[in-house]
Write a structure and sequence with these properties.
heterodimer, A: mainly alpha, MetI-like fold, B: 251 residues, alpha/beta, Rossmann fold, 6-stranded mixed β-sheet, 9 helices, 38% helix, 24% strand, binds adenosine-5'-diphosphate, binds magnesium ion
Chain lengths: 219, 251
């Protein structure tokens, strides 16, 4: 079987629509992960002992279970209890929650490793707790965590491929559909791989550039 | 008039330990309003801890600490916040917020603690930057400034809140020698031109001699000796003070 350029060209529009969907899912799940992760980290910080344990349990569970198990559970088991979610919503929620758990660990580490001097400065200026967290602690933590958080967004981007199993039309799904339609698999999967990679490299460069920028201070 | 005003700072038999390390042991010291007092003593003698206790960054294990006549030892979080409003502290490592411009560093507490509007806060910030000679750096970020400039900003930031008591913990120790003078000059100006009370820790003995009303020698968590600078530096009564001063002056 040899590479067929004409066929490859003909499936490109379908693949590109998959790229767009992959982007949308990545952005939605990524935003959810970043926000939820922050919420989990801050809640875990302030929560009394028992609630803290609960939060930790949740984080360990989300990180410990295979994503596919959660995905199938949400997509096939939940409807039996009346919770019916679209494939898109299911995919975004599961990826967002799982990587929210990962991100919460990044934030937590960031909070713990913030120099004591920052807390001292806030206290010496008598800043209210809200201001201390909203204007000093969390902005600094986010800046110090740009690299790790960006890396997780890139992982989410790759993991959207899992959503092929519940029929979200992400890049891998569109490649699979094209393959089934013509019984030619070389071109769709090769192109899918190339597209995943092509979009991934610039994101990695962007994250690195962002990291360097933050390291220079300011920003 | 004497006796009508309570001391600015009053430590009475204060004890503080971190785990098994006893840092302060029956520490007693009174600082009068408007007075400038310098703590000296070997590393580890508890000087920083004294300032951190006054700033309410740490809690004493024993004894009582009063700020402007009010005990800070057994008070609610809300009360301690109110009392802490009278205090300002500058640290060895500047502790400026690296993600904010110099102006934002100065504005933040004025806006959230003093509840000033944006323009009122910025106007005061600029005034304070002018006082430390850094008006043109308002829009820079801390890491773009030299250590000496950062520390002057930190002083300005602390002063924007009009503290009655200023706590300075070795504020020139992290600086290159050629940058020490510009920072001390600001302190000199502030203590001379205002009625602020200052409790400071420094290893700059000449500066301590010039600026202090009183110098307090600490060792192992206690006051060994206290006297006006001329007395303490020229004829210290304790052998430990004599040894310490000789050692510091040698460097
Ligand atoms: N937060 C802390 N936890 C444990 N030990 C501390 C802490 N702060 C200070 N110490 C210890 O207390 C002792 C006195 O510290 P410090 O007040 O910083 O002395 P100085 O400023 O005179 O050098 C030191 O031995 C130091 O290691
Ligand atoms: Mg010290």
């Amino acid at each position: 079987m040899t590479w067929d350029w004409q066929y490859a060209w003909s499936i490109m529009p379908a693949l590109l629509s998959g790229v767009r969907e992959t982007f949308v899912v990545t952005l939605a799940a990524g935003a959810l992960a970043l926000g939820l992760g922050m919420l989990i980290a801050v809640a875990g910080w302030f929560a009394p002992g028992r609630v803290k344990l609960l939060v930790r349990g949740f984080v360990e569970l989300a990180r410990g279970l295979p994503i596919l198990v959660l995905l199938f559970f949400a997509f096939y088991a939940l409807p039996q209890y009346g919770v019916v979610l679209s494939p898109y919503t299911t995919g975004v929620l599961v990826l967002g929650v799982v990587y929210g758990a990962y991100c919460s660990e990044v934030y937590r580490g960031g909070i713990v490793s913030l120099p004591r001097g920052m807390w001292d400065a806030c206290a010496a200026l008598n800043l209210p707790r809200r201001t201390t967290w909203a204007r000093v602690i969390l902005p600094m933590v986010v800046r110090n965590s740009v690299g790790a958080l960006g890396a997780y967004i890139i992982v989410i981007y790759k993991q959207t491929a899992l959503l092929v199993t519940i029929g979200v039309p992400v890049l891998l799904t569109t490649a699979q559909t094209a393959g089934y339609a013509s019984y030619r698999y070389l071109e769709p999967y090769t192109l899918a791989g190339v597209l995943y990679l092509l979009l991934n490299l610039p994101s990695m460069w962007m994250v690195r550039a962002l990291e360097r920028r933050v390291a220079r201070g300011g920003f | 008039m004497a006796g009508s005003k309570p001391p600015a700072l009053d430590f009475r038999g204060v004890g503080k330990a971190f785990g098994d390390t006893v840092v302060l042991d029956d520490f007693t010291l009174t600082v009068a309003p408007g007075e400038t007092v310098t703590l000296i003593g070997p590393s580890g003698s508890g000087k920083t801890t004294v300032l951190r206790l006054a700033m309410l960054l740490e809690r004493p294990d024993r004894g009582d600490i009063r700020v402007l006549g009010e005990s800070i030892t057994n008070v609610s979080a809300k009360e301690s916040r109110r009392i802490a409003r009278n205090l300002g502290m500058v640290f060895q490592q500047f502790n400026l917020f690296p993600h904010m411009t110099i102006l934002q560093n100065l504005d933040l507490a004025q806006r959230t603690v003093m509840r000033l509007g944006r323009s009122a806060a910025s106007a005061r910030s600029i005034e304070h930057l002018e006082m430390v000679g850094l008006r043109d750096k308002a829009d820079c970020y801390p890491l773009q400034l030299s250590g000496g400039q950062q520390q002057r900003v930190a002083l300005a930031r602390a002063l924007t809140l009009r503290p009655k008591v200023l706590l300075l913990d070795e504020i020139t120790s992290a600086l290159d020698p050629e940058l020490v003078g510009e920072v001390l000059e600001v302190v000199r100006k502030v203590t001379a031109e205002t009625d602020i009370t200052t409790l400071l820790v420094t290893h700059e003995m000449r500066f301590a001699r010039d600026i202090s009303d009183r110098v307090v020698m600490m060792d192992e968590g206690r006051v060994i000796e206290e006297a006006p600078p001329r007395t303490l530096f020229t004829k210290p009564s304790s052998p430990r003070t004599q040894a310490f001063i000789r050692r510091v002056l040698d460097h």
